[in-house]
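Hello,

I think I submitted the nicotinamide-adenine-dinucleotide job twice by accident. Can you confirm which output corresponds to this input? Input:
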Amino acid sequence: MSDEWNFPKGDLMKGKKGLVMGVANDKSIAWGIACQLAAQGADIAFSYMGESLLRRVEPLAASIGVKHLIECDVSSDASMDDAFAKLKDIYGEIDFVIHSIAFANKNELQGSFVENTTREGFLLAMNISAFSFVDTARRAAELMPNGGSLVTLTYLGSERVIPNYNTMGVAKAALEASTRYIARDLGPKGIRANAISAGAMRTLSLAGISGGRGLHAKSGQFSAMKEATSMEGVAGAALWLASDLGFSTTGEVVHVDAGFHIMGLSEEQEG
Ligand code: NAD
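Support: Only one job matched these inputs. Its output is below.
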C-alpha cells in the first residue's frame, strides 16, 4: 500500500466482496479507495483497461492482497459480458462496486465548448463516463441478491461551468442523474447507488484536461478549507457509502472537495 496516505484500519468491510473499476496507477482515485477498503477487510477484484495497464496494476494489486484482475473495456458489450462472467465465477455474489472511470478526447477538454464539441466526442464521453455506470449497475445487481452498494466518481463540472471541462461536465451531469434513476430502480432490492463529487486531484484524468494543474491549485486556494482535496477524504466517503455505515443513503451526490463547491465568491472577488 502507498505510504503517502494514512487510511484507518478496521473490519467495516470484513466479509464483503466487490469490484473496483478504474485503477490505472498509484495516483488513481480507484487505487486510494481500494487501499481504504482493503484496510477495512474487503475482498476486492480489480478491473483494468487493456494489457498495457496490467503491468502497472499487478504490483499495486499484490501489495494490498488483491488476487483477481479482470480486463474490462466498458465501451464494449463483449468485454463487459466477459468481465462480469469472470466476476461471477470468482465470487458468485458481490456486495459493492466502485466505478471510477471516465474518458473524453483531449480536444473536447479545452477551449470553447460550443466550437470544440463534436457528435463523436460527445457520444464517446457519454458512453464511457455515464452509460457505463448504468450498464455496470444492471450487471452488478444480478450478483447482489442480498443488496449492495454502487459508488461512482463525479465532479462539480456537472453543476457549474468549469473552464475546459466542457463535454465531460455534460457527461457527469448524465452520470449523476443516472445515479438517481439507478437508486430508484434498485432500491427495493436493497442496492444503493451514490456518487462522490471529488475535488480536483492530480491524476492521469486531470492531466488530460487543458489547464488541469492550475485547476488543482486554484481548487485548493479557493476552497472553504483553503486546502486541496485529500485522498483520505475521498476514500473515507467511499468506505462510508460501500459499507453498512451507508445504510439508508442512496441517490446522493456527496461533495468531498474541502468545501470548494459551496463558495460563491473567492476572497479575491470579495475585494
Ligand atoms: P485515472 O486516469 O487514474 O482513472 C480513470 C480510469 O478510467 C483509468 O483507470 C482508465 O483506465 C479508465 N478508463 C477509461 N476508459 C475506459 C474504458 N473504456 N473502459 C474501462 N476503463 C476505462 O483518473 P482519476 O482521476 O482517478 O479518475 C477516476 C474517476 O474520478 C473519473 O470518473 C474521474 O472523472 C473522476 N474524478 C476525478 C477527479 C480528479 O480531479 N482527478 C475529480 C473528480 C472526479
